[in-house]
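Reproducibility note. Readers wishing to regenerate the assembly model reported in the main text can use the exact inputs given here. Chain order matters: entities are listed in the order in which they were concatenated for prediction.
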Amino acid sequence: MVSIGIIGLGTVGGGVAEILERRKDRIRDRVGAELILRKACDLREELSETSGVSPGSFTTDYREVLEDDSITLVAVLTGNADFAFECIKECFKRGKHVVTANKALLASRWREIFTLSRESGCLIYFEASVGSGIPVIQGINEGLAANTIDRVKGILNGTSNYILTRMSIDSSTLSEAEALAVKEGFAEVDSSADISGLDAAHKLCVLANVIFPRPVELDEVYREGIDSIEAIDIEIARDMFSFSVKPLAVLRRHGDKVEARVHPALLPEDDMLAGVSRENNGILVEGDAVKGVMFYGKGAGRYPAASAVVSDIIYLAQKINYGVAGRIPYIHTDTGAGTPVLDMNELSFQYYLRFMTVDEPGVLSEISGILGESGVSILSCFQRGRGEEGVPIIMLTHKAREGALREALSRIDALEAVKKKSVFIRVESDREIE
Amino acid sequence: MVSIGIIGLGTVGGGVAEILERRKDRIRDRVGAELILRKACDLREELSETSGVSPGSFTTDYREVLEDDSITLVAVLTGNADFAFECIKECFKRGKHVVTANKALLASRWREIFTLSRESGCLIYFEASVGSGIPVIQGINEGLAANTIDRVKGILNGTSNYILTRMSIDSSTLSEAEALAVKEGFAEVDSSADISGLDAAHKLCVLANVIFPRPVELDEVYREGIDSIEAIDIEIARDMFSFSVKPLAVLRRHGDKVEARVHPALLPEDDMLAGVSRENNGILVEGDAVKGVMFYGKGAGRYPAASAVVSDIIYLAQKINYGVAGRIPYIHTDTGAGTPVLDMNELSFQYYLRFMTVDEPGVLSEISGILGESGVSILSCFQRGRGEEGVPIIMLTHKAREGALREALSRIDALEAVKKKSVFIRVESDREIE
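Running the prediction on these inputs yields the following structure tokens for the assembly.
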């Protein structure tokens, strides 16, 4: 018999309790022993019933979970990162293994957590923290263990992918699309962490730290939200250049350094990630032997996330039952220096640019002159009919260094003929678009 | 230190030996000990050099691998299923764990192998047997362990996918596309097992047996090759109905029974599998909690397959090093009755139909009359300009029982006005095409 506890019976935790009960027999077969949910805790008493936890197992006091010596495994499923950290620390101290889905916690306190894990001999599994139910952590860590992972390119945030997909289909504004996402259950009322790219940056950090023993720090990940994108850019990029706009997270090895960035990007239509739409996630992982492998599925929701948590629980409980849990370390993390992240200004991309200008002769020449002086070469350029906000000038550039482009844009934005901050979106493609 | 052996240094085995040498340091870190390739065997002496195996470790006598007591893990990478089986039996008898990529062996002798594995306490890993380097076996078995898997829908054979993709792009014939596949290294000179669907059926069987404790027998899997498909069908299906033709393998749970079938199928363009082209594989797995998860990547090639084998080796060697290998069973297989497969004639599909007829009045009425009598209802129908082989009549049906359709087609094929055996391709879609 393996006794477990749950701290947090919200969306994910409630789903976990449900599946544990509904799939009892199947789980017993896999674990090799009865799996008992001994104690489940949440401050909201009404969640006991909705998640089917019996009154005898339910508590509002998390210490009852931590202090129960029969419990050898705790699913820490609270959204509060600081509280989750305290729980995990206490679990390790008391010899309890942990499963969590809290990416904010993992991204910000990776070293501490894995140092404590190693010292205590207790394991922590966290499959649900990236890609929800998609088994990408295990896939990278074990299934692709033979590979040096050179790149990860992923759509890691379902909410922002849903919003950009909606904007593309309906030509709706970001806030209209956001409202719809809330209504359909693909966004929380406060989706600022999704829109700003923070959630994706957390997940990219987790992936980076599974791949690199020397961790990547969260605040070194370049981050740009999808709120710079307007429906007009999605439409032009699609109709003129056959691009899809996607909320992208990229990690790429450059010798001892990495590129780590989260921002909206334009993908050519034949890129598999361009086909990942709505609330779905897609994660392309490139290893030196395997080349590209993509993992795809729903990036959010009660049951997909609970699927990953319960799979982790089964997997750990099986090890506990057979007396081998903690014998093999799960993640290798060095305590020394981290992996340095390259300066975004040193990277090069092709760019989609949109300038809103006054309708006067000479403006195009002025803009292209400044780009030229900064060494940004234009691949194609066209002007659209005048709109309310001025005359849009659209450009696609050849590959240019980001620092050079930014310098040029700040000069262009200062021109009197330019009426709005110019828009730029990076093209993410291995081959130069011509 | 963990000592291993390799039997078979062909495409995959040679790649494995190479990666073991090239990634020595990384592998040592993961295993927690030095991994030594003690003995590698192949009858072709020249393969010693191409795979970088030192003369001291190379042998042409496989018994040297099996009889070396220091070897605790053997990668059995010969293509000969009977010989592979003898090797595995001997490994288990001598307490050696096994990694293999041989799907023909696994599909045909699953029960025997896993009975011997359980009795001996030795493990067998086989990630490379399906989807090459894509970690789909582990994904299903461990990453999705919380789920009841209800369906698997996959493009499991890279060669036939490459051929159909080429036929679609170039309007080439099957044999032209096949020749190109051989030239580009995506097909062997004898690709009959790929074309006929046998290879995909092997892989579907392996997936089925990972999912269902009661095994599915290979000869119960319905199997139809891609050689019934002509370029004209690919073109019409695409241009008229926006379908992609894909070599599909489907497994679906129906209570205690399953649907298990391999055949070319038409996919709507927005199906993620429709975007899986060329030599790639894509495997959609549907679980009750996680909904659909797709695994995608190269389905063939030396290094992708070697990636999966070496990952298995690392994973097993780690367990051997920490003294826990064999403590937890990997696959659960019952020795009793198998899982029965539903009769194909009882399943229902929408169908694309093509009849080649003589140019006479009344033919269309005769054909549609027979279909109607069998209860096959026509959704749309059109006639193309006359070709060399007659006048093509194309139809898309509503959902119909396969048995009823086959009965109608055999009557239609017997008509004097019908010049060739009629073509039918199943539409694979969850929603009825209208």
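We highlight two features of this model. Chain B touches chain A through 57 residues (CB under 8 Å). The longest strand of chain B covers residues 243-254.
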